[in-house]
Write a structure and sequence with these properties.
α4 packs parallel to α6 and α8 packs parallel to α9. The longest helix is centred in the N-terminal third of the chain and has 28 residues. The protein has a 9-stranded mixed β-sheet with strand order 13-11-14-15-22-21-20-17-18, sandwiched between helices. An 8-stranded parallel β-sheet has the order 6-4-3-2-1-9-8-7. The protein has a 6-stranded antiparallel β-sheet with strand order 10-24-25-31-27-28, covered by helices on one side. It contains 16 helices and 31 strands. The chain has 706 residues and is α/β, with parallel strands linked by helices. The protein is globular.
């Protein structure tokens, strides 16, 4: 078993410290550092070999050592040795691209934006070096060789492999001309094929750089585990990240700070794209993030972060930051140690099995952009659209499924075919679903699987399954779906033809003879909401003077001053249910799963339940804040159920009266509550093993053994 398969309690102490003051790191003590790790029950600490500042914590010949370590050059080596002496596995840390020392001392290595500026011209703290610059790569190779020869370590984390800006440096321009030709596009325009090619190249280049770093590291330390920063899988298009970092890493992970609901989704993403389990989830011990250096999360918030990772069978890394003088707050490690002591007993099952699910949400790692965004200059950050409509829709879908206790996971480009392990595939507003995946989806549905797709989706799927073709989008950015009699069963009386479901976004227009049942039709407000209204719709000129005149007139009028009520009822299909082979599918012209509304959530969940034939691998009677995550472990003749309370508060309120039922082919021999391995009462009826919890504070995890 590899070290990373055993070490679930991990830690990082940020050391991005300048050296302009002799006070900085003057009080750094290897003995005190490791003593804090022991107090915190850390099994695998991540140690800084270098930082964003670019200063090294070893006696480098190619860069610059931090002044605070000069004359005491072996301080970090001593930390590494003490960690190993105390039975810990050591993970190194090295910052790529973000390197202030290299940026200042080698201006020719700098990233340069479209207007010719580098990253620090406006007071920014971060100096950025371009991975396409071969001299910077040669320097990086020398640094990797040095640290590999100086330190002993089991794993290494390479941070910041992404594009923090759109780079137009000489090296990038030369590579573009060699591989494509002509000038690099400087207008962000998702309707422009040349811009989309440029984005593809940026992603390819960053992936190639990650593979290069991995190869160099393995040249000097074969067999060491490598992790590249991969929190960026959840970030927007500008970072140039798809599956490239996962494919260059031994296991996937990264640091996120967006709260417990984001963590729930991110854990499923990391679980679904790591080449080896467990994935790693990093977050700060500071509240709400590392910017608050002295504010520590409450015990309940720390428990929540650790246990959300553990119910997904991941490894938890908690990030602290050193004081500029080099001291650390012992009280922080006492708190971390208390939480890790409580959770240590769960670790024996965290290598068991695979996540069980019935619904797969597809996150297209190349689709993290707004395809309808207005074009903008590549150096105009203030007006550049970096929204992620697909991710917003998927987060809405996850919120609905979680609240209704429907077993789901996230799949992505890494292991896309994993969706076939479930019953329903969800394609929520995917702007450029790959042609190569269409046949797989059609076969899945034809053979009895189910599909839900909404908003932007592949035209071939729309045509073949539903008999429809896209013809454009509404001018109105306030639109409605009026249920038909066939659709009333999903609306459950919450919306009617006269009082339809509202969407504060444009809907797709589709024509053709629908295959199957039309569940809802498009309804529009009386007028086109204009820029001055509460719900603005930009004016889209058609070039037809008469039509534009009429459209402009419609934007100047309104029916109700505060809102845009439904007024134009059409026969255009907005929601269709179709049979395709042995399977079935629903198409929605707009992602009804995106809005955070009770009614939309109920309707979406009801549709997914129908698509899954109301048969799930588990069910729960529990408050909406409770999430259930199931792992199926036939190699241990067991299942592992995790139940977690997602109420994010300094002091988590208890929830009560929870019953969870897991589908099992035979009666279990035991149901055991972790971490104390306490026998639990259960019932076995109709192929379901049910347990009841009177109350739940943070998390419960139990095994069902056969």
């Amino acid at each position: 078993m590899q070290w990373y398969q055993k070490q679930f309690r991990r830690n990082l102490v940020d050391m991005h410290i300048e050296d302009w003051s002799p006070e900085f790191l003057s009080k750094f003590s290897p003995e005190q550092y490791v003593e804090n790790l022991k107090i915190g029950k850390i099994g695998a600490p991540m140690l800084y070999f270098q930082s964003h500042v670019g200063l090294c914590y070893w006696p480098t010949k190619t860069g610059k050592m931090h002044n605070g370590f000069v004359g005491r050059e072996d301080l970090m080596k001593r930390v590494e040795q003490l960690c190993h002496k105390n039975g810990m596995d050591v993970i190194g840390y090295y910052s790529l691209i973000y390197n202030n020392w290299a940026h200042e001392n080698h201006p020719e290595w700098r990233m340069i934006d479209a207007s010719g500026k580098h990253s620090r011209e406006n007071g920014n703290r971060y100096g950025l070096c371009c991975p396409n610059n071969m001299e910077y790569r040669a320097f990086t190779r020398q640094q990797i060789q040095e640290l590999s020869e100086y330190f002993d370590f089991e794993g290494i984390f390479y941070d910041m492999l992404f594009w923090p800006m759109i780079c137009y440096c000489d090296a990038c321009q030369a590579r573009w001309k060699k591989e494509v030709g002509g000038e690099m596009p400087k207008i962000v325009d998702w309707k422009d094929e040349r811009w989309k090619l440029f984005q593809q190249k940026r992603t390819e280049w960053m992936g190639e750089y990650a593979q290069w770093v991995t190869a160099v590291q393995h040249e000097f330390k074969p067999g060491v585990a490598i992790e590249h920063q991969y929190s960026t899988q959840m970030h927007d298009w500008r970072f140039g990240i798809n599956e490239n970092m996962a494919l260059a890493s031994t296991y996937s992970g990264g640091d996120l700070y967006g709260g417990i609901e984001e963590q729930s989704f991110a854990c499923k993403m990391c679980y679904g794209c790591t080449q080896n389990q467990p994935f790693e989830y990093m977050t700060s011990r500071c509240y709400p993030s590392l910017s608050e250096h002295t504010t520590t999360k409450s015990l309940d918030l720390l428990r929540m972060s650790v246990m959300m990772t553990y119910v997904h069978h991941g490894a938890c890394l908690l990030i602290d930051a050193i004081d500029p003088t080099g001291t650390m707050d012992r009280r922080v490690y006492e708190r971390i140690g208390q939480v890790f002591s409580e959770t240590q007993g769960y670790e024996r099952v965290l290598t068991w099995g695979k996540q069980a699910f019935d619904v797969a949400l597809y996150y297209d790692l190349n689709g993290k952009y707004n395809p309808e965004a207005e074009p903008s200059a590549a150096d105009d950050d203030a007006h550049m659209d970096r929204t992620k409509p697909m991710q917003e829709a998927l987060m809405g879908a996850a919120r609905s499924l979680r609240a209704h206790h429907i077993p789901y996971t996230a799949v992505n480009n890494c292991f896309f075919d994993r969706y076939r392990e479930g019953k329903v595939l969800v394609l929520s507003d995917v702007p450029a679903f790959e042609d190569s995946k269409v046949d797989s989806v059609l076969e899945f549905v034809k053979n009895g699987g189910s599909l839900y797709m909404s908003g932007h989706c592949h035209p071939r799927l729309l045509q073949e399954i539903f008999g429809l073709e896209y013809t454009g989008m509404t001018d109105e950015q306030v639109t409605y779906v009026s249920p038909t009699p066939a659709g009333d069963r999903f609306m459950d009386g919450q919306f009617t033809h006269q009082y339809p479901l509202v969407m504060f976004e444009r809907q797709f227009l589709a024509e053709g003879t629908p295959k199957g049942e039309v569940l809802g039709t498009l309804t529009l407000p009386y007028t086109i909401p204009n820029r001055s209204s509460a719900s603005a719709t930009p004016f889209f000129a058609t070039g037809d003077a008469e039509a534009d005149k009429d459209k402009l007139e419609r934007t100047r009028r309104f029916a109700s001053i505060h809102s845009n009520p439904p007024g134009i009822f059409t026969e255009r299909p907005a929601m269709v249910l179709a049979q395709y082979g042995k399977g079935k599918a629903i198409w929605s012209a707009s992602p009804i799963e995106r809005p955070n509304r009770e009614q939309h959530s109920e309707i979406f969940a009801k549709m997914i339940s129908m698509l899954a034939d109301n048969q799930f691998c588990f069910a729960a009677q529990a408050p909406e804040s409770v999430e259930c995550v199931l792992f199926d472990a036939p190699e241990h003749n067991a299942k592992v159920m995790g139940i977690i309370n997602l109420q994010e508060a300094f002091h988590t309120p208890e929830v009560h009266d929870i019953t969870v039922s897991v589908a099992c082919e035979k009666q279990p021999s035991a149901v055991t509550l972790l971490p104390e391995n306490t026998p639990m009462k259960y019932t076995w009826q109709n192929g379901m093993v049910s347990v009841h919890l009177d109350s739940l504070k943070c998390c419960a995890m139990y095994t069902i053994e056969f």
